[in-house]
Fold this protein.
Amino acid sequence: MHHLRICFVAVAFAFCVQGPAHALHDSNADTWVVILSTSRFWYNYRHAANALSIYHTVKRLGVTDDRILLLMAQGFACDPRNCHPGSIFNDVQRSIDLYGTDVEVDYRGLDVSANSFIRLLTGRHPPNDHVSKRLRSGPKSRVLIYITGHGGENFFKFQDSEIISNRDISDAIEQMHQQHRYGEILFIADTCHAESLIADITSPNVIAVASSGRHEDSYSVELSREIGVYMIDCFTGRLLQFLEKISDTATGARNPSISALFQFMNNPLVVRSHPKFLVSNFTRGLDSVTVRDFFGNWPRLTFYDDLVEVHNGATPITHTELAKRGKQDFGLAPVPDERLSSHREAFQLSPVFISGCFAVFSLIVVGGFALAFG
């Protein structure tokens, strides 16, 4: 038995030398996005365009579909009045097909309801709900919640048949806080009387943005005479102008703060309303909170012997090239050099691990003979 103990200690030591899998996760990587469009009927085409525009923006900035919950009451792409079947655009020039082939809708049609939205936020799903329909955020997650549709003072409409109140929204966020389902939240409402929807939010670490004042309407823009409807709302159109300036790299100049977003959006002549902002018990200073903290996701790195694989679709790069060109050129979050060095040193231990395995095997054989003939 003494020989066996020696063998097991040797095995444990060998695995400790090898260490865990060589993956480096930036602390900013846990970002989740909920995008909700609640409107049906052709004349609400713009609300689908609003939601899809935000969807494509967060994907461009690194958030993957498994971390995006997209809820659309009606897609409009297959509406018989759509003279561009299978497509949705947000401008009259038809610059980008927002629907296309790379959109994953998690809730559609009648599945988009007040009940399903609250259940999604609070995690109270029916047992048979697929994992792709669940917000699997945790206590360190940054959650972006963007909603667009029709609203009134203190309520928000779902498909012109039901509503949720401002108290429902604030209670859902408080339940998320109590259940440790977020670290920080950015809540954006693009609807009429939007300020009334965020006024009761008191949960900690929440930033809320409303497209209009309590007694104001929100307005649309980009009227298409071809399809006969407006193609986007003024507030979301202005928001996209700001987000398009954010690069998919981590350089500071192209990764502005939430404060800069507030200043940019606070332009009544362009937005045609007076956007409102609420900061509820936020522990970080707003100048240190970047827009990409919520609208993007820093790529995850996996280290191999001479390669760093970037998990955002980029081509693997060598350690030398990473050091020479700088991490920002590859859209990577700033990573301390000592962390990179520690991972390189871990790979230099590979020969030691091989030798250790051989030594362990020898000890097992010797221990077996000792037990058999001792």
Confidence is low (pLDDT under 50) at residues 1-29, 311-316, 327-350.
